[in-house]
Amino acid sequence: MKTKSDSFSPRVSLSLKQKAWNPYLVGIGIGVLSWLAFLLVNKPIGMSTEISKFSGWVVGMFGGSETVSNNAYWAGTAPAFGYSTVFLLFTAVGAFLSAKLGNDLSAEKVPAVWEQYQGPGVAKRMIAAFLGGAILLFGARLAGGCTSGHGISGTMQLALSSWLFFPVMFITGIITAKLLFRNKHTA
């Protein structure tokens, strides 16, 4: 018999399932989007710089411009709300619409793979996700770009730093996955 808690228990199968979006067409779409960004606004696609600029803009609204100007990072990367921030926000909207239209939208606090290897603890998952995101953003700013900035825009422009970024990203991703998912959780 199903309980009330069982009725809202979305799980994703650990096997590969057919997605609605063809990865080749999506890749072509991202390439075309990159060309359009350069053509229309003369800016590359990128996220991590915009997150930093947006956070500086928000801090400036609540903490005042002096708080922002005293920060060494924001002194070199002026906080702003402009085209790139709108691009950042619409990327989140586009991701939601893509998942919804591709019938791949699910509400889960602990993904099945995480639960299998790390257990069902929501707090542990949220802390790991927050720390992982913070480390990822710090690394992206340290590298001068993220997967979209280096991976899409930088490689299209044949930037050496972008071509060096990718192997390092993949190697650290593999190491992290092996550390996080090496032992199955036993309940």
Structure description:
With about 190 residues, this protein is an all-alpha fold. The chain folds into 2 domains: about 20-105, no CATH class; about 110-185, no CATH class. Helix content is about 70%, strand content about 0%. It contains 10 helices and no strands. It has helices at about 5, 25-40, 50-65, 65-70, 70-75, 85-100, 110-120, 120-145, 145-155, 160-180. Helix 9 runs antiparallel to helix 10 (about 160-180). It is globular and about 50 Å long.
Q: Indicate the radius of gyration in whole angstroms.
A: 20 Å
Task: List low-pLDDT spans.
Answer: 1-16
Number-wise, the strands total 0
Number of domains: 2
Indicate the percent of residues in helices: 55-70%
- Please tell me the overall pLDDT: 80
Measured by DSSP, the beta-strand proportion falls in: under 5%
Query: Describe the biggest sheet?
Result: none
| N- and C-termini, Cα separation | 22 Å
Number of helices: 10
